[in-house]
Each structure stands twice: as structure tokens, then as C-alpha cells.
Amino acid sequence: DAKKLVRSPSGLRMVPEHRAARSPFGLDEPPWVPDKECPRCMQCDTKFDFITRKHHCRRCGKCFCDKCCSKKVPLPRMCFVDPVRQCAECALVSQKETEFYDKQLKVLMNGATFFVTLGTSEKSELMVCRLSNNQRYLVLDGDSHYEIEITQISTVQILTEGFTPGGGNTRAIGMILQYKVPGSEEVMQMKFTASEDFSCNKKLSASWLAAMHKATKLLYESRDQ
């Protein structure tokens, strides 16, 4: 998908040519709190003057002094080319998301093998499941072929085993995915179960499911924006 370089008050962004091609995990730039409505830092309440200048957090759009908004952190969910200024709270969130973009997104794109059961069928099919390179589709390949739009996914339930009263020693073994077919209100369901053939498959499947769980959280956040 073609992209273009655009400049906003927040910095340079590399965005898709068409809005429909944007990542489902992306966030829009927030409106900035107008300078005239912000005489004091919205974190420490320091009064702005000629010496104490105001800065806007690129993630939340609120107004802060330099001390409360000094960190420059990557913000791939808004397609910024370079790290951008963020308040301490937003910087912490963006830093946690870095792992998803640096590691887990690659895991999803590389894919993993699962037994996939469609709807209430008793038959399952061994399929390779992966996220498309443009991040907009979940692609399933086996004897059959499916492409599920990420934006049409309504719920994702991760299935685990090994639960203990203390909450430890659990591992992901599958997931139940519900989604809508474009142009229809019908909700479809798929169940993914990790293959037990090889121990390496278990580890790869568990990593893929963990990445999918994180991706789902980001997807919900983008919808709630």
C-alpha cells in the first residue's frame, strides 16, 4: 500500500495514501488543548511564563511544562517517523507498546499452525494462521483459505490450560474468534487449537496467541478512541 510523508504540528508522519489502508491498530492524532485554555501545567500546576514554556504531549494533546513532558518516545501507532514529545504517563504506555511493534507484530506476521474449527462443525482443519503484512487481515491457509478483516473481529477469547489457584503456570493453547462478514450482520465463529505434534509447535503457537492477545487490546483501544 502506497504511503506518503505528511507534516503535522506534532511532527513528520508516514501515513497510507488512503485512510481505508491504515492499520487497524493505529490511533489518530489528538486535538491539542488550546494555549489560551492552559495557563498552568496540567500535571504539576506550574504557571507558564516567559521562562516556563508550555509543551503539548503528542499522544494525549494535553499541555505540560518541560519537566512533565520532556521524554521523546517512539509512537508507531500514530505513524510518527521520529520519537516525539510525550508526558510521563503517555510515554510509559508508548514504551510498553514498543515490544508489540518490535517483536510481537513480527510473530503474528510469521504465523503459526493451528487446528481450526469453523462454527459448530465437529471437523477441524490444520491451517497456518498469520497476520497480513498490511496488518489488516488474518490469513488462514490449509486445504481451505480464509481472510478475516481485523476490523470485523468482535471478540477474541484466549484458551489456556494449567491454571492454578495462585494464577501461575498457565499457557495459551488456543482461542475462540468471533467476527462479522462484511455486508452482513451475521457473526461467525472459529476455534483455534494448538497442534500437539511437536514441542516446538507448542512454543510457537503460545507465542503467537500471546501476540494476538496484545493485538486485540490495541484493536479495542483504537475503536474506543
UniProtKB/TrEMBL annotation:
<keyword id="KW-0479">Metal-binding</keyword>
<dbReference type="InterPro" id="IPR038632">
    <property type="entry name" value="ZFYVE21_C_sf"/>
</dbReference>
<dbReference type="InterPro" id="IPR000306">
    <property type="entry name" value="Znf_FYVE"/>
</dbReference>
<dbReference type="InterPro" id="IPR032031">
    <property type="entry name" value="ZFYVE21_C"/>
</dbReference>
<dbReference type="Pfam" id="PF01363">
    <property type="entry name" value="FYVE"/>
</dbReference>
<dbReference type="GO" id="GO:0008270">
    <property type="term" value="F:zinc ion binding"/>
</dbReference>
<dbReference type="InterPro" id="IPR013083">
    <property type="entry name" value="Znf_RING/FYVE/PHD"/>
</dbReference>
<keyword id="KW-0863">Zinc-finger</keyword>
<dbReference type="InterPro" id="IPR017455">
    <property type="entry name" value="Znf_FYVE-rel"/>
</dbReference>
<protein>
    <submittedName>
        <fullName>ZFY21 protein</fullName>
    </submittedName>
</protein>
<dbReference type="InterPro" id="IPR052113">
    <property type="entry name" value="FYVE-type_Zinc_Finger"/>
</dbReference>
<keyword id="KW-0862">Zinc</keyword>
<feature type="domain" description="FYVE-type">
    <location>
        <begin position="35"/>
        <end position="90"/>
    </location>
</feature>
<dbReference type="InterPro" id="IPR011011">
    <property type="entry name" value="Znf_FYVE_PHD"/>
</dbReference>
<dbReference type="Pfam" id="PF16696">
    <property type="entry name" value="ZFYVE21_C"/>
</dbReference>
